[in-house]
Amino acid sequence: MSAVTPARPAVTPDSNAPVRPSQPTGTGVAQTPFPGTSAHRTTPLTEAEAPEGFRRPRPRPAPRRTPNPAVSVIVPTRNEARNLEIVLPAIAAVRPAVHEVIVVDGNSTDNTVAAARRTLPWARVITQTRKGKGNAMACGFTAATGDVIVMFDADGSADPGEIPAFVSALVAGADFAKGSRFRKGGGSDDITLLRKTGNAGLNGVANRLFGTAYTDLCYGYNAFWADLVPQLELPDPAIPQPEDGSMIWGDGFEIETVLNCRVAAAGLKITEVPSVERERMFGETNLRTFADGTRVLRTLAAEHRRAERRRKGSGYAR
Predict the structure, then answer these.
(1) Residue 106 near residue 131, CB atoms below 8 Å
(2) Contact assessment for residue 138 and residue 29, using Cβ atoms and an 8 Å cutoff
(3) Is it true that the peptide bond before 235 is cis, omega within 30 degrees of 0?
(4) Per the structure, how many domains does the chain have?
(5) Residue 183 CA: distances (Å) to CA of 1, 145, 169, 216, 257
(6) Is residue 273 a part of any domain in this protein?
(7) DSSP 173
(8) Torsion 162-164-167-168 (CA) sign
(9) In sequence order, which residues have a C-beta less than 8 Å from that of residue 59 and are 6 or more positions away?
(10) Which CATH number is 188's domain given?
(11) Does the keyword Ion transport apply (predicted)?
(12) Which end of the chain has fewer CB within 10 Å, C or N?
């Protein structure tokens, strides 16, 4: 593992940490809007304003930073039924055991929801409130009840066996554990030379703009302490999909770059964790080399402007 921002003290034992069940049940959406984080408003939606079927969570203990954190794994899906039959049991087999697995479905048409419930009955299966990977992640983040949140793609390219390494990086003092295919011990069975070259260029832009030392900006296997969710300021999941079909900023595939930019701009401690990317098991990738590269560049520019505005205004909480 390699730190890319100055070190902070490691987590100290918390004797008052709550005891949590190892396998929670339930399939309803349990979500709390982030105060002041909507792209369109500065207060959470009321019950009357929330979309039909959107349920507020019951009160629960705040997430804690403990030496033995409860881990929530968020798996965004869209037509990944065959992959989930392999991925979900592999996540469930991780030791130490994860606290919960949340499958966030994007209105799949291939029996993804049924496959998830059949394959891992104790997984929580929810439906995202709008469209886009970013919205799916935000729905999963707000539904999570663990102390640590792990972002995990459903295509089988990520190795669940690496989850303990991400958690260890957080317990050792990191706020955000960033997967990297280019650190010693990492690698990829899937990346092409063109994508690798493009990724290196994007890393350079991000590092120059945000003062980081990222080696793998575009890799989506990450973990972070759940108490950081409000600082990420993602769009409120309860906001309805815009009538014109447009996407709210942060709802799309720009989500991973948005997160990397915001944790850096907030001055949080980031540690890169070596990770090996495997080939997608079933289905076709949604990656588009040139279109996605352009999207990342636009995201970096937009997030840098946002960070500059905030620095000149109220600033990030540190």
Answers:
(1) yes
(2) no
(3) no
(4) 1
(5) 8, 31, 14, 9, 19
(6) yes
(7) T
(8) negative
(9) none
(10) 3.90.550.10
(11) no
(12) C
> Alpha-carbon distance 80 to 109, whole Å?
10
Q: Which two tokens stand for residue 160?
A: 């669940």
Give me the average pLDDT of each 10-residue run along the chain (318 residues).
52 44 37 34 42 45 88 96 97 96 96 96 96 94 97 94 98 97 85 71 88 90 96 93 90 90 95 92 61 79 92 60
Residue pointed to by tokens 């990656």: 287
What whole-number distance in Å separates Cα of residue 129 and Cα of residue 104? Answer: 10
Q: Which residue range forms the structural domain that includes residue 281?
A: 69-238+247-312
Q: CA 1 to CA 51: how far, in whole Å?
A: 42
User: Tokens 């996605």 belong to which residue?
Assistant: 292
Quick check: is 143 in a domain? yes
**Which token pair is 103?**
């499958």
CB contact set of 208 (below 8 Å; sequence gap of 6+):
none
pTM for the whole structure:
0.79
Residue 113 lies in a domain: yes
